[in-house]
Amino acid sequence: MINFAQLANSPTRPEQLRLKTWLHLSLAYEFQPQQAQILEDLAKTRINLQAQVDWELRFYQRHPDNSWTCHQSWRLKP
Question: Distance between CA atoms of 42 and 28, rounded to whole angstroms?
Fold first, then answer.
């Protein structure tokens, strides 16, 4: 994967590919530091870590105006 990222040149993508070595879920953005504990408690009471999940792999293109296009999407099976 690292070799691909180094070799994947594109005339429409000015920056390098950002490699993802782990997956994450963002639950809140730009919250005040004093809200951190409240948001953590809320997440712990609402999210069932044992729940069954479905994953998808998607390929996106970011355009110069910062809009995005999803070119392909696949459902991943465990």
Answer: 11
Task: In whole angstroms, give the CA distance from residue 7 to residue 5.
Answer: 6
φ/ψ (deg, to 5) at 7: -95, -15
Alpha-carbon distance of 37 to 35, in angstroms, equals 6
Alpha helices in the chain (DSSP H): 2-7, 36-46
Q: Whole-angstrom Cα distance, residue 72 to residue 59?
A: 5
| Of 30, 27, 23, the residue nearest 56 (C-alpha) | 23
C-beta of residue 27 within 8 angstroms of C-beta of residue 43:
yes
pLDDT (tens digit per residue) in 10-42: 777 777 777 776 666 777 888 999 999 999 999
